[in-house]
Amino acid sequence: MATLDITCLRSLVSVASFGGVRRAAEALHLSQAGVSGHLRRLETELGFPVVTRQGRNIAFTSRGEDVLREAYRLLGEHDDALHRLLGPASGELLVVSTEHATEALLRAVARVLSRDHPDRPVRFRFHRSARVREFVHDHSADVALGIGDLGQGTRHITELPLTWVGPSDRAPDTGALVTFTAPCTVRDHILASEAAAGGAVVRECADLVSLLSAVKSTGGVTALPRLRLSEPGLTALDSLPSLPSVPLTLVTSNRLASRTRDGIIAALVSTA
């Protein structure tokens, strides 16, 4: 019977979030060979390719996207269970981020934390902003990055312009709308747009991986922050009415020194 190793799944999610094996290895404090080995172990266990090379980049296969979706869910449940049973991991710095954060923004946060706390491991968790707010509310996140109001201590970083996107391999069906499930600020902007007046929601998705897959499979359209326009298989659409921007926001724990907090803010502003 096949099994899914949590360490391998964490490497898989990091590769997706940081945009490659090298950057994932840096964030996890592992060697590139170690992260690559985790991916190969997953593929061996499952019996099918999870990732494929596209030039110097790595892309997920269709079935690999399914694995990635399950990896997000399983890691969340695993980490929540450990937190309930054991409490926060000693010495660990927890960064909880919206799925819309790009690898450049995540690297900016990781660099500051590694600079100021070189001996403390940094763990990233990725959730919808509604779930990020829960981490802020119970004070379990050292750094929380999301869209909109995250609760007490929310700091505005920048405005993220939204851009319509569709599949790059065919003419998009602009009347077929793909959205996140509610609650979601991006979803609200999509449904309030002029484009929604003559269209219909064909798929509602619980996470970013599902959303991207749905756009490719249905041929429909969605909206993403402009920072994410490098997603493979998608192309920006300039023919649809413009959308309002969404605020990228930050909350840092009082456990972090003001130097670290200010460093994170400066790094995010310069990156965004």
TrEMBL record:
Q: Which GO terms describe its molecular function?
A: DNA-binding transcription factor activity; transcription cis-regulatory region binding
Where do transmembrane segments lie in this chain?
A: none
Indicate yes or no for the key word Glycosyltransferase: no
Origin: domain of life: Bacteria
> By its UniProt entry, which Pfam families does this protein fall under?
HTH_1 (PF00126), LysR_substrate (PF03466)
Enumerate the UniProt keywords alphabetically: DNA-binding, Transcription, Transcription regulation
Please list the residue ranges annotated as the HTH lysR-type domain: 4-61
| PANTHER family with a match to the protein in the record | HTH-TYPE TRANSCRIPTIONAL REGULATOR (PTHR30126), HTH-TYPE TRANSCRIPTIONAL REGULATOR CYSL (PTHR30126:SF39)
What does the sequence similarity comment in the record state about its family? Belongs to the LysR transcriptional regulatory family.
UniProt-recorded name of the protein: LysR family transcriptional regulator
Q: Which organism does this sequence originate in?
A: Streptomyces seoulensis
